[in-house]
Amino acid sequence: MSLDELTSEVASFAKERDWDQFHLPRSLVLALMAEVGELAEVMQWVPDSQMNSRWTEDNNDDLSEELADVFIYLIRLADVLDIDLESAARSKLLVNAEKYPVEKSRGKSTKYTNL
Amino acid sequence: MSLDELTSEVASFAKERDWDQFHLPRSLVLALMAEVGELAEVMQWVPDSQMNSRWTEDNNDDLSEELADVFIYLIRLADVLDIDLESAARSKLLVNAEKYPVEKSRGKSTKYTNL
Amino acid sequence: MSLDELTSEVASFAKERDWDQFHLPRSLVLALMAEVGELAEVMQWVPDSQMNSRWTEDNNDDLSEELADVFIYLIRLADVLDIDLESAARSKLLVNAEKYPVEKSRGKSTKYTNL
Amino acid sequence: MSLDELTSEVASFAKERDWDQFHLPRSLVLALMAEVGELAEVMQWVPDSQMNSRWTEDNNDDLSEELADVFIYLIRLADVLDIDLESAARSKLLVNAEKYPVEKSRGKSTKYTNL
User: Fold this and answer.
1) Most buried of A33, B97, C41, C114, CB within 10 angstroms?
2) Helix, coil or strand: residue C36
3) Of the partner residues A45, A110, A111, the one whose CB lies closest to the CB of residue D114
4) Are B10 and B92 in contact (CB under 8 A)?
């Protein structure tokens, strides 16, 4: 399923329930924050040293669910704002590629982005 | 471009710069929070009553960029955690459809989700 | 009770339960985020126009609890980082006072701060 | 300076600039989120293993500033919602003390809180 199809599916879900009225941009940003908070909660007491592949497998269901929630609200917000997420991401990757040339950026973490 | 292609492109971007070493799950969640924070900042002083289609058009560049940043880190995090975002989202929509039947949910905002 | 006393009380709470080991700075930032997310959740579907004093009174318990949680983790994080929250806030208010002179700032929302 | 004095100072700062009009509850939660995002950004690429006391000393200015910003918006939000942060925190600590008895909680991280 493409991102477009997912966008339509989420839009239909809201429309069928007459939930468009609740989907103001600021309301969706608050909902997005709430979901990122739930994702943070899953990892909050697990230090980097314990977050190995075994931990991520054992917690795959929780992680998948929280990532899905973040994704669904992000898709919905983009739709309400009439923004094409895919082309916005492609444009940003081009900007980043210019801002962080391979040779100069190799192995360095920069304060403001690492993507 | 499909979500898979975008995932690969983001992964290559990191790999070329030897940035995989920075992309610990918790680091990516913190980066995701930072980007959601930048999105929040764009809207923080614009009350709902002023956030009409004119405002969103005038601020389309900022909004697109921040949504893109959130999306890129979400894609990267899912990749690092070996989670398929698309199928996670589809599964969650099925769960939500069962949890919020159309007839009972119509026009009602619930505390915990509206998607 | 002063902020110092509150800081000590939160520190004792953690110490008595041998929870210091969990209170890494990044863990506390993730926990802070999770609490801000819960605060966002309380308001997410209530547009500005409905968030009057009646609504805030009716939801006083939930709001108080979420604000308290954010505050407690903020106090704990400052303590772990050995930062004096009160003097940090005072310093920042002085910086802001210089950055936003009364005459030039009156009635204007600026993108990056309004405090 | 007590928390009450800090609350008054922040309120005066806003009033003098005629910024009360911008301080809707949801706007302040978005601003709070933006500041937590800036705090996250300071730490995002520093894994737990490198975040020792030397790192926190070297980054004390940035950390202090971001903590101050979070604190200032939290104080302002509590004031606008007419909530006493200090007594809210005290009440919550009492609830937590009952929920997490010392003997049963010692050395255990629980999913939902560790404070």
Assistant:
1) A33
2) helix
3) A45
4) no
DSSP H or E stretch at residue C93: helix C85-99
pTM: 0.96
Angle at A28 between CA A25 and CA A30, to 5 degrees: 110
Tell me how far apart the alpha carbons of residues A62 and A56 are, in angstroms, rounded to a whole number.
Answer: 9
Residue ranges in chain C modelled with pLDDT below 70: 1, 111-114
B-chain residue closest to D47, CA distance = B27
What is the three-class DSSP state of B18? coil
Residue with tokens 């949680």: C69
d(CA C49, CA B49): 8
Chains touching chain A through at least 3 C-beta pairs below 8 angstroms are B, C, D
Closest Cβ–Cβ partner in D14, D21, D65 for C115: D14
Q: What is the pLDDT of residues D50-105, one digit of tens each?
A: 999 999 999 999 999 999 999 999 999 999 999 999 999 999 999 999 999 999 99
User: What percent of chain B is predicted at pLDDT more than 90?
Assistant: 90
Hey, are the CB atoms on D45 and A112 less than 8 Å from each other?
no
Cβ contact (<8 Å) for A34 and C44? yes
Give the per-residue pLDDT at C108.
87
ipTM: 0.95
Confidence (pLDDT) at D1 = 64
For residues B29 and B33, give the distance between their C-alpha atoms in angstroms, rounded to a whole number. 6
Nearest C-alpha in B relative to A76 = B115
Cα–Cα distance measured from residue A74 to residue C46, given in angstroms and rounded to the nearest whole number: 19
Which among D43, D60, D100 has the least Cβ separation from residue C17? D100
The pLDDT of residue B115 is 75
Tokens 């977050």 belong to A51
Query: In this complex, is the C-beta atom of A83 within 8 Å of any C-beta atom belonging to chain C?
Result: no
Confidence at B78, pLDDT banded by 50, 70, 90: very high
Question: For the packed helices C3-16 and C60-80, what is the interaxial angle rounded to 10 degrees?
Answer: 80
Which residues in chain B are closer than 8 Å to D47, comparing Cβ atoms? 24, 26-27
DSSP D21-61: GG--HHHHHHHHHHHHHHHHHHHTTS-GGG-SHHHHHHTHH
